[in-house]
Structures are given as structure tokens and as C-alpha cells.
Queue: 4 jobs
Job 1
Amino acid sequence: MRQNSTAPRNNKLKPSSNLIMNGSVRVRVIRTLLAIQNGQSLSSVLDPLLNSLHDGDKGFAHALLLTTLRQWHALARLLDSLADNPIDEVEVRTTIQVGLVQLLYLEVADHAAIHETVEAAKEIEFAHSTGLVNAILRKVAKNPSKFRKKCDKKHSLPNWLAYQLKQDWSEQYDELTQGLRQPAPMFLRVNSAVTSVEEYQHALDGAEIDTDIVELTTGFKVANASETTTLSTKGLRLHQSTAVNALPDFAVGTASVQDMHAQLAAPIINQALMAKLSSESANTNSESDESNNNELHILDACAAPGGKLAHWLELISANDESSLFHVKQDNAETSPVITDIKVTAIDNEAPRIERIRENLQRLNLSQHDLQQAEKSVALNIVCADATRWQHGKNKKAATNEPVFDAILLDSPCTATGVIRRHPDISILRTEEDIEQTALLQADILHNLWPQLKAGGYLLYVTCSILKQENVEQMQDFITHHNDAVAIEFTEDCSWGIEQAIGRQCLPIDSASGDGFYYALLHKTAE
């Protein structure tokens, strides 16, 4: 969820994408950082920056920009300790911080880092600051190891966020705050409808791309089931990030880039629904209930950019036990319970809807592709606000009766769990965003829950590590909904930290995935 920060003081330079594309590499990075401080996201300014550069400069610009963002708040504190008087001009502060990164983290030669940064100050029309820029950088260059240690000693987060993490994760605080300033590894999800993780790893080996297989085990017990449901999720962790065009068969949908902890979502909600169907099949008369059990309607809410939706469609399309079409009645060897599956996906912005369609098209999971398949899967992608959207509300015969058997809610959040990948978050987010986001989450939950059938499941997911958006949100929801029951994840889980409701992944565990929260809710009949 995008949140804007307060604009910096005395900012006479308000960079546009055209300004970012002009000047030396360092100047372009400085202007990009100024754009981020003005509220633009890294994802919106990174491509314009890189596309404006020669290939030989792109690697340095990317490293300079991302490293400066990751160390932003630590650098700011170091800068305050180095200056005799407060430096209020944001352009000057940004320029010096870019210079400090070159000296402390990128091992750029002293003379080059200092000279080029001083020249950058002139180029952005802050020539009056060149003496100050030169003096501070020369001081640091005399003993870079000393100042690197000083910079690394504490966290590189805004103080309000560090304080909240201390409250929420006191035992993990030191490791967590240091971990958030490090780059995140690249993970791949392999399309199980096309090939196996092991086979694709072999193809990567042939392309000289080294990977590890990461396997996460999940256990939970759905309502009325006699046994615990256990499933395994496998992904690939690359030893070194690689351009997607270098990945074998990436363009034809064999693999997708997706964080390992994000890869848990689709298997969990899919398996919960399968366990529900299996339990119903074992406890009902197949002849009398056949007409009620041959169709499923599932919802992916806040679906963009479509990674979890694509994963769920891949599982549905797979010719193995992960497919919902393969759930069979207890007394039938050949007849599947499910013959038709309707999938609805919603998101609230047209460009994000287009991103979903593009991703599904690459993976051969568009509505056209699904119509050509043997299984009957109908996909409907809707641009709508999840706080108000009601299924079928634009139809004459529309009612607000429950329609969905399962809902995957990838809820808007402050995205504090993915700061390693999006370090601009620590600049863009404010303390007030937490409360606003929690209210938005509650509105979405209250709107979607009545549309879930009794006996159905809702999987609540965020990429946040703040408890107010996660376990506290779930506790409040269950308190106000008597028909909501939290499904416990069992000790079979190899991921996350058990919470009062659900489990919390932190970006410091052995899998190296991002910070994600998962809670599985069952809707009972009131």
C-alpha cells in the first residue's frame, strides 16, 4: 500500500523523471533519492534511472542508490555527528550521504568519491555547499573503518519504527534491525503444472546458475477433519541475483520470481479447501449432495501483481494431488467431486489489474489459456475497492448472500517485512500509517467476510512485521465475529513464529525469506 512521506524542508529541487535522466551518474542517483523523499516509490523511479544510463554505468548506479537507501537513517545520524552545525538543505544532506556510501560501503577510491560528489553538488546548483561536502568526506576518508563501524553499530531505521519493533520483537530486535539493512536473496517459484523444482534446478545448473532447494513444511487441522493436514512447499534460492532473461524458459512461464515465504500462501488456502472437500465427501451421501459439491467459487482479494493468484491457478492446473479437481468422493475411485471452479480476482487500480493480466499471460494462465484446458476454470478479474465490492452487485438478481468457498486476502499493509527489497519504505512510511492501514484492513475484512460461505476458509496474509497489522488485527476481528474461528498451525510447521493467532515469518530465519504473517480463519454456521 503506497503511503507518502512528509516533503523534506527547503527542497527547491523537485525532481521529475526528466530531471533524473540528466547529468552524471551520481547526480542522477541524487535526484532519484530526492524524488523518493518527495513521496515517489523506488519502483516508480528505478527503471527511469537505469534506462537513462549506459550499460556500463547501470550496475554502479543501482548499487549506489540501493545501498544509500538501506543505510539511509544510519548515514543521517553519522552526518549529524560530523557537521559542526545542522544541515537543513535536503539536497546537500543527500549529496553528502551519497558520498559517504561510496567511501564506507562501495570501496570507491577516495579521490574519485570526493571529487565526483563535490562536482555533483555543483551540478545540482548547490555550489555554495562544496566546501562543506569536501570537508566532511575528507574527514571520513582518513579513517573509513572507524566511521563504518559507527554507522553499522545501530539500526538504519526511523526511530519510531525501531521503537515499535523493540516493542513487538524484543528477543529478535538486534538481529532483525540489522537484517533489514541487508539485501534479500532472489527466490524462484517453479510452475508445478510444467516441471518439478528438481528438474528446473538441473536446467539452472546447465545455465551455470547456482541454487539451493528450500523446503517449508506446513501443518494445520481443518474443522471436522480427523487428521492433521501436512504439506510441503519447495522453492529455489539463488546464490546470486540474476536477470530473469537469463533464466531458462522464464519467458514461457516455467518459473516466476517470488519470495519463499510468499510461496506459502496459495498452497495453504488450496490445501485447506481440499481438506474441507475431502471431509465433506467422507461424511455426506454422495448421491444427494452431488449437485451442491460440483462447483467451487474462490476469491483472491487485493490480487496485484498476481503472484499468489498465479500460484493458486498453477496448483489448480497441476495433474497431481494438489489440484482441486482431484478431490474424490470417499466411495468413488474415478469421479472427482469438483467439475467447475470459478476464480474471481480483485484489485483497486487499473494499472495493477493490467500487471496481473501480463503476469498470467506469461504463465499461460489467462482466461483464454484456461478455457483451452481440459479442466473447467473460469477466471474473472475485476477492478474494484475491496472495502466496498460485493460479488454480483451490478447484476439485476444480485444478492449479498455468501458465494465464496475460500478467500485469499493478501491484505494492504505497511510492507515493513519487505524493507530489504524496498528500502524506500523506511523513508516513505510514517508512524501514522500503521493506524490508518489497520483501519483499512479491518474495513476489507468486514466487507469480505459476509461473502464467505459457512464452512469456508479465509487466509489472511500481510508482508508486515508489525503486530498491530497482524495478530492484533486477527484478535480484534475474531472478537467481533462469532462465526470466525482461527485454525491453529501445528508443530509440523518449519517456518515462522507461533502467535496467539497465526504465524509470523521474520526476515532473519534459515529460509532467508521476507517478513510475512499468515492466519487461517474458518467460518462456522451461526
Job 2
Amino acid sequence: MKTYKNIITAIVAVMVLSMASCKNDKDFLTENQKALDESNSLLNPAQFSVMSASMYHYIQLFYCSADQTKDAWILGLGTDVCFDPRDPTSKYNNWSIVNGTDNFSGDWWSWQYTLIKVANTLIAGAANPAVVWPSDAAKNAAIAEARYFRGFAYRNLANAFGGVPIVDAPVTEAKVDYVRNTRDEVYKFAQADLIYAAANLPLTTTQPGRVVRAAADHILAEVNISLKDYDGAIAAATRVIDGTDGNYSLVKARFGARAAEADKNYYYDLFVMGNQNTQTGNNESIWNAQFAVTATGGPVLGGVPGTLTRPLIERMMWCQYWGAAKLGYPGTPTDTSGRGVGFVKPTNYTNYNIWKNSGTDIRNNEVNIKRKYYFGADIKDGNGVVIFKKKDLIPKSYLTTREDTMLFVYPNWAKFGTDKHINAVPDNGYVRNFYVIRLPETYFLRAEAYLNKGRTDLAANDLNAVRGRAIATPVAAADVNIDYILDERARELFGEEFRMLTLTRLGLVYDRTKRFGSPESAASVQQYNNLMPIPQTAIDRNVGATLAQNPGYK
């Protein structure tokens, strides 16, 4: 949100005004210590809004905190869907080196507890009778926003780590005796927060990226599944799907900035820059992290060092065919080729297996997954004879080295890049907002709840709502199981859903990685990797009690 960008300016202004109000040097130098806390720094709705903006900033960091593979961790790095193609020995290719010092999962832990800290401060501050609220509804909405983020953070922690310490109020003095609550206790705590949020958040907002009621019900549906409250999960998801929580629907027609281009389709439109927010007419979007260069997005302060202050999704997820001299390319990325460097590659499961017999599924056509690559110049043999002409299709037989298919040529998913960058600058020219929650996932959650109740017919209906939009063959009720739902999640949501958390929630990291992961990941993953390691720093600092590590990690 743009609010957090004004925090520093506001602080400077307050300092200047304070200095100007001093009557003399003696007054200026007189020490008057005051503790800054929720009792004196949160006194009106504007101040609550400024602090809440920091929570949205941390959502941005989920997608833009580092270069190379780190930002892919939450998307399923080293599991069934993707891996690091450059180094077979790297972390999550090699699960045996994942432990309590892992900064990928470790930062996830830290970010969630930071969200919780801010949320607790806001919730406590709202109880201060000195705060002037325009209405009870405004007060309740501010509390609901904070409770949404707290519930969301505890869901993220419980999914990834299992039971974790519940901190339900601001911590005002040193505390080193935390103990782990059970996983169910954490889910129940999150459930209560999300129920409150779903009842008190607004249905709509004019501020792109701000959470609304549907976001709370979506996360509540998942938490209810984790608590085996399948009826509650179905009810929460249904409120999103049936219009109770707002006007949401699957996109089935061209829309947005490039809708007039005949060679694209409406699924492609979902990922065109400028098309993600509901305020621009995308009724499939429920919650987005804001990155577009607008009043509510732009550079991510505290993100990737240097000038790379936007998500590196194209760089991370696309292959580097523009740099393959063997294929006739000069090593210079262009607007149409993008700036992929192959840090993360989809597995064979993601690129091929889930698309077997896909038929007319538009998610797998050349518009949405580029599979055909062409020579960038005439290719000659050792005698100078042209064996391939510029723009000839590159045959598989010409890709003979590991580097050819692990770095230079593999399917590029259009959702991760563009053929028309801002100002035709590939490196910094793909800046779109990121879906945190998109409506198809709500259908998948309800399908999962129906499956757990034994209603495979209703689960199939929900899966087919999404598959029908994609012009894919309907699934029969007899074929619906958790594997099929995870396959459909990969087809629709690869690179969007928190795949790592989906698999840890279900206890299927080991099983799915063993069956579908890269050879290195499949060989090294262990049963205990179904949960992530508790950060060793948290364990070491907690000297007043034992903060137990998850079994299996050293």
C-alpha cells in the first residue's frame, strides 16, 4: 500500500514540527522520556492504517526478498512441481542439507511472527478508549484486518512447521520461555481470527491489494479442512463462490490491457500487466500483492538489494534461450524473448505428465506454455553448410547436452513473463501484481472438503467448474482423489499457490516429491521433511524453556 511509503516522510515532519515548537535551547535539551507503544501512537484511524501498511509490505517480501531460488521456496522448490536445474547439489534439490539453519524456511518463520507482532499491536491499540473512531464499524474493520493477518500468519506457520508458540498479545518485555502449542491449537486460534475477519471486513475496497471478506473466508475454508470441519470449510468456500462475499466469478472472456490481440486468450489475460486487481474488472482476483508501478505498488523497500526492487519471476522461472549461441542467439535478451535465466525449472511432472491427454485445455496451448523454439540465426556445420535456417523449429535431436535442456530450452509458462515489457526493457520490464488468492483455488478447497466427506460427485463439479473454463475434458467423480486435486492445482495454479504449504498441510511433501520430484529431490527427501525445521536461532534464544525441533532435523 502507498501508506507505508509515506511513513518516513511523516516521521521527519513530526520531528521538524517538534523542533519548531521549542521555546528555547533549554526546552530543546530537556530530556523527556516517553515510551512509544499502542497507547500513545495509535490514536486515530489514519495511524492504524499506516501501521497496517507494514503487514502488506511483508506480503510483498514473500515474492521479492532475494535473487535466484529463494523466492521459489514457497512455490514448491524441490517438491513435485519445480527444482533448481543448475546445481543438483543445491538446497531442496538435496533435502539432506535442509536443517534448522535454513534461511528459506527460517525467513518464512520470521516474517509470520513479524506479521503477528504488528497485528497484536493493532488489536491491542484498538481497545484503547482514547482512540477516536468514526463508527463502531470502522473500529471493527480495523480489528478485522489485523486479525485476518494474524490468522493468515498462524495458518502459514501451522502448515509449514506444525505446532508453534501462540503469541496473542504485544510482548512488552524480554521473553525467553516460549513453548510450542499443538498444531490443532494453532489452527483453532487462526480459525477464531478468520471467523471474526470474515464477519467484519468490507465486501469491497477501492484500494487495490487490501484484504476483503472473501480473502478471510478462503483462508478459513482451508483452516477448517485442517481441523476436519469439512462442513465449515464448504460453508466458507461457498460464501466466496456464490456471491455472499462479493461479486466473484471465473474469467471466461477476453478482458484488460491486451484484450484486442487476437493471438492471445482469456487465460493469458489473467497474467497481463495491469489486469490483476478487481478494481480493473478482474472478478477472479480475491487478493493480490501489489507490485505494479502505481499508487499502491512499485519498488519493494527492503527487498532484493540494489536496483532489483521488483519480483524476479521472469528471471527466475523462464529459460535462457536468448543466451544460447548454439541456437543462434547473441546473448542479449529482447522484448519478445524475456530475461529468463533458468534459476527454477518445472519438473517433468509439471511440464509434461499433468498434460497427458489434455486435449483442448487452453492452459496447455502455445499461448500459455511456450514449447516451440526457433533458431535465432542460420546454423552451419563444420564445413560452413547451413543445416538449419533462422526461424526453423529447433528439433529435440539438436539439444544434446544437459545445459541445452536445463538452462536454454524448456517450456516457458506465459504467466511468469511477457512478450511486451515496459519500455521494451526485459530485465526490469515485467512488473505485475501477484495473486495471493485467486478464485479457482477456492473451488479446489471446496472440492477437497467434499472429497473428505465422500462426496466425489460434488468435488468433481467444483473441479469441472475450473476445467470447463479451461475447455478441458470434465473429470468423472470416480477419478477424483487427492492426487487429482493436486494435479489440477498444478495445472491451474503452478507458481501461484503456496505449494510448499499445501504439501506440508497434507503431509505429502515426501510422497509427492518421491514420485514426481527431480531425480535429486526424489532421492534425498525423507518422511520427516513433511514439516519444515524450526529455526535454530529461535531454539537457541529460548533459554527459559525447550522449543523442541521437529523430529528428524539435526
Job 3
Amino acid sequence: MSSLKERPTAATFDVEALVAAAWNGEIRVPHFQRGFRWAREDVRRLFDSIVKGYPVGSLLLWERPATEQRVSLGALRIDAPATDAAQWVVDGQQRITALANALDPSGQGDQRFALSYNLRTGAFVSSPPSPDPMIIPLPVVFDLQQILKWFAKYPEIADYLDAATSVTKRLRQFPIPAYVVKQGSPDVLQDIFDRMNNYGKRLKRAEVFSALYAGDEAKQDETLTIERIAHGINIERQFGAIDDDTILRAILARRGPDVTRDIHHEFEDGREDRDAAYKAGEEALLRAVTFVQEKAGVPHFHLLPYRFLLVVLSRFFAHHPDPGADALETLRCWFWRASVVGPYIFRGSATGAMRAQNYKISPHSMSESLQGLINAVERSERSVPNAARLRTNEGAGKIIMCSLWALGPRDPLTADSIEQPRLARSVGDSNTAATAISYIVNPRNVGSSRRFSAGNRIILSSEKFPANEVDSLVAMQPVHLGDAEWEAILASHAITAEMAALLASGRTVEFLQVRERAVQEHLQNFLTEMCGWNFETIESLLDRREDERVPGVLD
């Protein structure tokens, strides 16, 4: 197995030396590196970090010979001479390319690198189309002689000379740490690159947002956080722990429909502070969860067909917190139609589906919002998931589980209803609802064609009742239960006495076939009702809706 013969040596390059090496052709980019991917905002933030003295990460360079060649580095084309000690960039290409281009006059023709320093605001900005004495291009700021010429040309800004030369000094002398590898084959360096870029666990967007807007350190014990929102809703509704990214999107959706926007400037407009946004986002999300449980019939987060639906609902309830019965019924029809459609009519992207439907919600008109949501999913074919396949981590499987939940499942031993708190306890900390939906017949004893069949699943804690015991629970009527009550218990699981008899007599395959058909029929009826497919509910309800104007909305 190939490996490095020598450990990398630690080095430090100031920006002046690093860009000089790049301009001289001493910096090379290995073929396995991706191209330059940064946008202008990424470049701007790099320079802002440097001037503020923030760490910008370390570099990994591979020192080895290089032939004479014309090197492409961003917008720059450099005639690089042959050298025995070229620095090949294994990690840090984006930063080096950004520095070399933004600080070179030749790079200013590319809008990604056309940046200047605004003396008025002390910020890096896009270079203006016409000269402005107070906005100095970066190549000028970086060169002390050029900065002195600039001030000689514009004597009216002389009071800003010290500020400008301070920025020049900080830019040129800013230290960037690096590791330099002097031995190693190309495949070893490519392996290092692959591991650094793919094996590392990147921060989730919600983690970045929480770090950016952590709130007052002195009030951390009382400050609302994403984690506390998740915990609070779970305690109040026993809905399960909503993931951090969904909660973040719910907070963002209330403030604007595009939840993929740049979160680094979220509160710069001053319309609302961080704490107010978290509190209002929590309230909207709680209303959405309550609706999902009480009106849409989804008892737990792990039975929610698609997470993006919760985000869209949060936006709706943020702007229309108290809809009437007609509106809630219309919203329920939208919810289930959107669940059946999933993200597939939106180019298969859950993010695309979420954005498209967020934009349908008008902060000022409930009628327009409801009509827009319904129109967004009207292209759907009235397709129903196939009961032959139930996987607890798939949207279709969750729809099937919700339909089984709608039957009001009861415990075959005690005849007690399986209430939502018991379901929540059964799911526990699992990543899916698998622990709350048992196999009736041990899946090892059924053929591959029936292995994932919903006909073989029953809402009952799989931990309390192992797979090799549930079939006997269904097949044998307890002596303390009368016939009518036993049949009601079986019906609460889409099972008839005839099906139970098949199982009791060992006719397992027939039982699974018959129950799969029963589950499929029930699923069809469930979705027909929930989606409003059999009557003109949507049109009549929308006609009866009155617009409700909401003052002071953020949109």
C-alpha cells in the first residue's frame, strides 16, 4: 500500500508571498482538482475574513518538479517556467485562486474577482462601473506604491490614507498556515485530496445557522434554539424529534419563501431580530404539527410522507394562523394530494417542491394561498401506493402506515386502543417507524415476493411482540374477548375473521394475498377521502373562502 515516506512539514505563507508564487507560475493545480467553484460573494468573504484577522483555513501543498507550461488559474493565464520545486495544490485551490485573481489587475475583468475596498463603509464591495475615489480596486489597495499614487490623484480623500494603508498592510502580511508534502506519488496525493474533500463530515446548514446566530451568551439558559424547539414540540405533541434542518427551514419559510437563500445576511435588514424569528417560527411549526396530527391524520414525524410538507405548512400557518373549518379541510386535501405526488412533478427534488409550494402562499390572502397550493399539485395522477411494498423510510410506505393508523388499531391482547403516546414510545429514538409496525408472519418464512408486503405488517410495537409471536396473536381469539369485540379488533388492522382463520390453519400465503388486497382497498378509500377525489370539495370550499388580510407580514 502506498503511503507518505515523510510527514508533511508545517509552513506559513503570508498573502504577499503566496500570490507572488502564483503569479510566477510556482503554484500548480493537479489534474484531479475540480475547477474554480466560488462565486463573487465567496471571494468577498475571504478578503473580509483576512482584514478582520479571522482564520481562513490551512493549505496542503505538494512540492515536486513541474515542466514549463501555460497555467490557467481562474481568469489568469500564466507562462510558468520549469521548476524543481513547484507547489501543487492538494487543498486550498479556491482560496489561492481567489487571492491571485482579485489582487491582479488582469483578474478584474472577471466579475467573480472584480472587488474593491469601500473607504466609506470599511467593506469589500463589487467594483463600480465608473471610478469613485472612495472605492479602491483591490489590486491598488494591495500595492503600496499604487495606493500612494491613488491618494495623490485624489487629494480630497487624504484623511483616509491611514485607513487604506492599514488595509494594505493587513492584506499583504496576513499569515496562512500550510502543510507541505515533499515526497509521495500522484496516487497518494490524490487519495489525500479525496479523503479531505469527501470523508470529512461537513457542518449541516442548521449547525451553521445556529453558530451564526447563537444569541446573547449571557442568556443562553433562556435563549430559544433549534434544539429546544425540537424538544419542546416533541414534549407537547409527542410527535417525535423533528430534524434540525426541517426546523431551520420552517423558521426561514415564515420570513420568505426561498429557504435556500444565503443565511449569512438573514437579519441585516433589521425588520426582526433573531429571538423574535425563532419564537414566531416555533409557533408556526407547532401549528403545522398540530394540523398534521389532528386534521391530516399523521401521528408521528416518522410517518410524515415528506418533510418538506411541514415547512410549507409552517409558512401557511405563520401568515394564516387561525383558518376556519373550510380552509382546514382544503388544506388537508392539498396535504394528501401533495403527499401522493411527492416531489416528482417538481423534477424529483424535495427542495424544488418545497420552494415551488412556498411561493404559492400569499401572506395577504388565504384564498390565493389555498388556490395556489391546490393548483401546484393538480397535475398529479390519482395514483395510489402499491401495498405490495412497504418500506418505513419511503414516502409511499409512510402513506400506507398512515392509512393503517386511520383504522384506529387496537391491541389484540387487551383490546385497548393504541393511542398516539404509545405509538411515540414504540418509535422511541429510532430513525424510522419500523419499531412500531410489526411483521405478522416472520419475514424469513415468506417468499421474496411477499417480503415487503403491507399485507404482512400491523401497527403494534415490534419490540413488545417479536415477529414469531404476532401471527398467533392474530390467529387466536383470546378467551376473555367476545366474538363481536374480537372482530372489531381485527377490523382495526384491516383483518377479517376469515383471514384470521386462514392464518390459524397454516395457509399463510393465502392470508398474505387476501390481506394485501384488503390493505390496498382501504388505502384507496383512505386517500379518496383525504384527497377529496370523489367530490367537488376543493372548488366549493375555495368559493366560500373570504380573503383575510394579515398586517405587518414579513413578505
Job 4
Amino acid sequence: MMTPRLALGATAALTLALLAACGSDNDDSAPVAPTPQDPAPVTAPSVAFMTDVHFENVYGDFKNATFAGVPMKDGRNATIRTMYAELTSTRLFNENYFAFRAALDDAYAKGIRHVALPGDFTDDAQPINVDGIADILKEYQAKGMRFFIAPGNHDPNEPYDDMEAGKNDFLTKEGKEQKVYATGSAACKAKDPAVICTDQLMEQGYEKLVAKLSDYGFMPNRADVLWETPFSKYSGGKYSYDEAVAQGALAKRQFEICAEGTGGSYKAAGETKLGKSYTKCTMMFDSSYLVEPVKGLWLLAIDANVFVPNANFDPANPKHIKGFDGAGNAGWNKVVTHKQHLLDWIRAVSARAKAENKQLMAFSHYPTMDFYANQTAAMKAVFKPGAFQTARVPEVATTNAVAATGLPLHVGGHMHFNGTNDVTDPNGNFFVNVQSPSLAVYGAAYKILTYKDKDTVDVQTVPLNSVPRFNDLFPLYQAEYDYLQGSTAAADVAKRWDRAILDTKSYGEFTHYYFGELSRLRFMDEYWSCEMKEAAMSLNGRQMLILSQLQTRVTLAQLKDAPGVLPLTAGCAAKGTAAGDAVPASQLAADWLDATAKAEALATKAGLKLDDFARITPYVFYGDFHRTVYAGELALRDMGSTRVSQYKVLMAAFPQTPAAIVKVGDKLSDQNPVGVPFQNQFKQVFGILKGLGSAKPSEHFTIDLKGRKVSNANSAALSFN
């Protein structure tokens, strides 16, 4: 590891001691005496963070004459994915092309010249998309901007080239789906006439990706004050551009990884801890780097991808992609166990930054702490197993391990969320994680971070509500809509979507509508249990408030004999044993009337009208829930103060201790009183919604590193508190 120029005095001596104790796995050089350095400037430039761009080159060339995309009026061809594919994905594939340009233009107009891209800047590192985004970055770099990339799990999707990749859902001019695969796929090898074969859809690994994007942080720029990797060693401890270029070679940026943990000098300690030998060890790339693009500003780009060798790993063929687990669910949980050299390096960088008064901004693709506003345990308890990708939430021990490095601030992405969280670890280290939202999803926005002084960071979130040309592709989707409406094939009927999305007038409105459809077409089935889905997709806000007050002995099984009271059934329940003292189903109407009076009183006390709660339709409710999961404070802004107030009434309306749900096996019994399942489950649902909408500030806020506090800078921000 490099020992850079440090300030003289006791602080520098302490930093050198830290470096000597916490060197990387490859560090066998002795510290070199520091040389004097001028103090860093009070204020370094602002940096824009644009996360999860998921760039697809909508005007790209497949280099296959059989399929050139869909002709457009301007003479170009659009190589785009279907609208159905977009509406069932947690990322847009097409419109984010325009959103990315809009974000760059906006940042440039604001005078920002440094832009960080914390991973998933492409769809899956395909040549068509990597080359496309490289052209755009080159265009804006020529205008004076600098870009700094950290890799995500979509770039690269695997550590080595995947010649078998492809997509099933490119749009044809007839409105149908077209399969486009790389030439190494089974379909292409079999010469399947239904498949377009092109290596523009292969997925590139580290070597090609870093080579093509070397100008955007992966390699040093001659103008940089400093550039290093976790493995850098500079002669005499003094930075040299020529040496940095040599040190930047990917062959020199490797570490050993094993199935059980980090290899190299960390292996012995790991084996002792596990009580067994490490297996399936191999060398792996690490594209992390530290750069000082202007004096005083340190950008720490952390490669937190962890591709763990799995049961299919073959030492004789170590580059075979099936020999590694994907990085998507690994995140910082696996960094701590399988890339321990990074923690040592981060510790050293953090100490040096503090000693030299550098304004340090660290970023990686993955969150470093709970990104669900500490609602993860509640979400696991109420939703289906694995819902909302809770496996990706960092463990407390992981967060503490990163905090223990002394790193003050980290910007992450991956989850496409807008949010903020902080922690003070057992040793008193204050650490803040800023979740930067995706440009390709509801709540599309980018972050601007600025050090106001050495201990105060200003964070602004810039929403992309207005994006020029966001609807350029809408006429092409019309052909898809017409085809699906005209087809009677079951597979096509299942893919029908609401054409109203093509009438949206802004990117903000488009992404809002997109998320309602994503919720309807995917999330409700994937995340919500049968009875919860029925309730969420059947009840409006008025009915929910009344149901929260309902006290009745009428059971779910009796609902069929009490039509017209509320739109629920016993369809999700198992048949139970009826009680001997059952009440008649007709009692439900009277009990519902009593509950309505109580609900009316709750609404009136809050200065609201019960009937107005009906404006929270089922589609609005479950859309709002999922939008708040993703966008936090930004979602409440879109709801408006009236709906926020209505939700606050609902959040406080449930019994303090709802009756327990009676089950038959793992299903609820149809002998549960009508209100019990809803009150039990939705008390938790609204509790989660409140937690998500009452989290740390996430729109415009300041971070006081010395005072260990995150403060809202927007006095008009809405909250469920």
C-alpha cells in the first residue's frame, strides 16, 4: 500500500502507525517519512451521485441484419424492451436513457463537474450498453465533467465474460417480444430461428469492463492529485502518475478469495476461527480506488462486489461463470468475510483523510446498514418469506465492522431506494449511510453532497420530475398494447397493461404510474399473503378505517351470508370448526354500523371527513405503500398533506393489542371473526408504513459529523410522525 505525503507532527505519526498496523494483504513496504503538505481547502467541490442508472442504449445496434429494432419517425431504430417488461421490473429499461441525460444536464447547469456512479450504470454490462454509456460519458467529459465509477452487481453480472446471456423481451414493430441472445447461448448454438444472435448481448466481465471505462475513475487521470488502489505501492511513498498507471493494471489488483472467506494472509486466521481448511480458493479482481481529483476532495470508490466460489467451482477452469455465486445478495455482509483487505484499506484511508483534513466521500453499490428505516424485522414478520429482498439487508455486525474503520460517510445504491440511516457503533464511531435512489424507478433522483466545513455535509436530493423526450418511445408501445389487446393467447392476455400510462405528461407522473402497475402486476403476488392481498386490493381507505374499529363475532365463513357489507371473502382461509355459540350473519350489518360511527369520530377528531377516506382506493393504497418503501420522504411529498393526514389516522386507529389469528395448519381459519385478520396484519402494515415515512431525513438534510446528528434542512417536509 502507498504511504502518501502526510502532514508533519504528532497527527502524522499516529497515522503512520495506523498504516503500519492495518496494511492490505499485499503490503510489505515500510512507511516512508512524510513530506510537508499544505492544508486542504475549507470547501471542496460538490459531487453528484447518480446511482443505478441501468443504462440501455435505446438506439444501439445489435450488428445483426435480421433485427435492427423498431423504425422511428426520425429515421433511427429503437432497440428497446417491451412495456410489459418495464412494468414488471424494479427498474425501467428504456426511459432512463433520457433520464440519465437530463440528470447530467441538470448537474452541469448547477455547476457540478464531479459525478460518481455507484454501480449498475448499465443493464448487464453488454457491449451495446457499455459502449453507449461510454459515448455519453465521453461527451460530457469533453464539457469539463469528471466521472468516477464503482461497479455493481449488473456491471459486471459475473466476474468473467458470459457468452450465453441474453434477453427475451425486446420489442418488435408488430408489438411482439423478440429474443436476443449472445452467440454462445444454447439457442444460438442450436440455430433457433426464433432467436436473434449477437455478441452485443454477451455480458462482459471485469477485464473488458475496466478496459472500456478506464477513463472514468478505474484508471488515473494526469490531472489527479492522488490515485491509488488497495494494492498500490509508490516509490519513496510519493505519488507518481506514471507509477499509478502501472499500479492500475488489473493484473495487479487481485486478491485471493475462497468459499469460506478471504484468502492470502487472512486465510490462517479464518481457518483457525472455522476450525477447517479453506477450499475453492482463486484469485479475483478488485477494482476499488481512491482518487483526489482536486485538492482536498477524496473520492473512495469501493468495489463491494463479492463473487464467492460455489460448489460448481472447478480449479481447472477457474474463470467459468457457473463456479461463482452472484453478487446481488452478498453485499457488505460478504465484504466483511470475503474481502477483508478492503476493511483494512478503508481504515487506513479514513485515518489519513482525517489527519490530512481531506473531505472524504466513500461510495459503493451496496448499502452498509438497514435500508428499511429499521423496519426489516417487522417486514419479515408480516410479509411472505423473502419479500422485499430482506436478505440484502446488512447484519448489525456488518454495519459495526464498517463503522469501526472510522469511515464517516458512505453513499450506496442497489435497492433503488431514497433513504438515510446512521449508527454509532459500540466504540463510539458515528457512521452515516446515504441511499441514493435510482434514475430508473419511481422517485428517480440524484444526490448532491457538499462539505460545508470539515465536519458538516449538506445532502440535497434532486428529483427528476421533468425529463425532456421521456415519451419519445410511447408510439412504439402503442403497437404492443394493440397486439396484446387483440391476442386471445393466455400468455398475452396475462401481459395486458393499462394504456393510461401512455397519457402521462411528465417523467415524474410516468414513474408514479409505472409503480402502481408494478405493484399490481408483481409485488402483490410476490410479497403479500393471500388474505392480505385480498384486503389490500379490495378495501378503500374508508372501509379500512371502519374495519379497524369493527368488533363482531361474525366469522369469515359467514361472509357469504352477509353480502354487501364489505368486499372480503373466506377464499384464502381453511375450513375450521364452527363454535357452538355462533351469531347469525345478519349481525354483521349492525356491527359494521357501530364501527362506522367510531371511524367517523376518529376522522372528525383529526379534522377530516370519513367519506373522503374512500379516495384512497385500493390501487392508491398499495401503490403508496410500495412507493414509500422505495422513495421514503419523496413519496410523502407526492401523496400531499391531506392523504398523509388520512394515513396518520389509520396508523393510530387499530386496537392496541389485536386478537390473535386462529389458524388451521399454516393458513388462517375461516372461523376467525371478520375483523381479526385485518386488524392483526394491517396494524403491522401501517406500523411499517409509518416507520418508512418517519425515517431519517432523506430529501435535503445536513450531516453533523462532530455532533453525530442528521438534521432536516427542509422545514416543509412531510412525515408520518
